[in-house]
């Protein structure tokens, strides 16, 4: 039996894909030869934003900047836990200017503890927050040194996980937190090194294990509020296992953004305030 499910109100930061395009390739999903339909990308993104709002969550919007086509993937711009903001430092120069844009937003919105990082980290692309841990990916983007930096800043135990498949270049393409009060996650084991797989098995023996098809449909790039799990609609194999565990899957069509190698979670940065989840905005902003 699963624990009772309860949605808690969240606060998210999102950035509209006004300037979205694929002009460079920094992950295997990006093909500049494939045209991008910006109005469609914007409509799909608005659908995700409106879905969050209709579920009772707060969505703040970051002003998109021309020349930064990946800025729509707002999850990468910072990590916010207990109201503390650790900025990003991007691995690729194409995305580097996104980091100061995020820092500026946090400073303008009254977040008292904002830290510019020394080591490369791409925000929630490689950091995932559970009740007990800060899970931290490495191998393609985040520097392993960023893990110690994050542990020191947030005061939460960091579990380093090695990513080995270039299609799953960020932790949030291979693992999603389903319940941040009970340490429940879902993930795709082949995206991780054998040792990291074993570590995940030890820490999360009851995790939902995704198939290759659902991982390839970006099904692990999902956002949960404790009850509703918003995920790419093509990841149909996850629907039943999620329902069996008491979650309510909410399929979202973000096919246009998949051309940039991102989906639901990549577009969504969670602004976690101090205290238990559900009091978003109480001590920050
Ligand atoms: N094109 C972007 C990149 O490769 C996609 C980022 C997706 N974001 C994420 N959180 N996985 O950096």
UniProtKB/TrEMBL annotation:
Give the highest taxon in the source lineage: Bacteria
Cite the Gene3D superfamilies for this sequence: L-arginine/glycine Amidinotransferase, Chain A
Q: NCBIfam families attached here?
A: DiMArgaseDdahMtb
Question: What's this protein's name?
Answer: Amidinotransferase
Species source reads Streptomyces siamensis
**Taxonomic lineage of this organism?**
Bacteria, Bacillati, Actinomycetota, Actinomycetes, Kitasatosporales
């Amino acid at each position: 039996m699963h624990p009772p499910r309860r949605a808690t109100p969240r606060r998210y930061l999102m950035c509209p894909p006004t300037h979205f395009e694929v002009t460079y390739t920094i992950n295997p999903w990006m093909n500049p030869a494939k045209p991008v339909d910006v109005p469609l990308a914007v409509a799909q993104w608005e659908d995700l934003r409106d879905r969050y709002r209709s579920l009772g969550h707060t969505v703040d919007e970051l002003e998109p900047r021309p020349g930064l086509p990946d800025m729509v993937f707002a999850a990468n711009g910072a990590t916010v836990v207990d109201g503390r903001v650790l900025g990003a430092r991007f691995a690729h120069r194409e995305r580097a200017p996104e980091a100061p844009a995020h820092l500026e937003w946090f400073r303008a919105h009254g977040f008292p503890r904002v830290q510019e990082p020394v080591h490369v980290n791409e925000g929630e692309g490689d950091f995932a927050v559970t009740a007990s841990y800060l899970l931290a990916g490495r191998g393609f983007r985040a520097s392993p040194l960023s893990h110690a930096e994050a542990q020191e800043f947030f005061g939460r135990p960091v579990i380093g996980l090695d990513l080995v498949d270039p299609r799953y270049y960020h932790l949030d393409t291979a693992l999603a937190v389903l319940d941040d009060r009970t340490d429940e996650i879902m993930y795709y084991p082949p995206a991780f090194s054998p040792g990291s797989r074993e570590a995940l098995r030890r820490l999360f023996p009851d995790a939902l294990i995704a198939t290759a098809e659902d991982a390839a449909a970006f099904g692990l790039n999902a956002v949960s509020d404790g009850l509703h799990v918003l995920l790419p609609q093509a990841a149909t194999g996850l629907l039943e296992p999620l329902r069996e565990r008491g979650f309510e899957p909410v399929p979202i069509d973000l096919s246009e953004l998949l051309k940039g190698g991102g989906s639901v979670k990549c577009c969504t940065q969670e602004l976690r305030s101090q205290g238990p989840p559900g009091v978003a905005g109480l001590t920050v902003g």
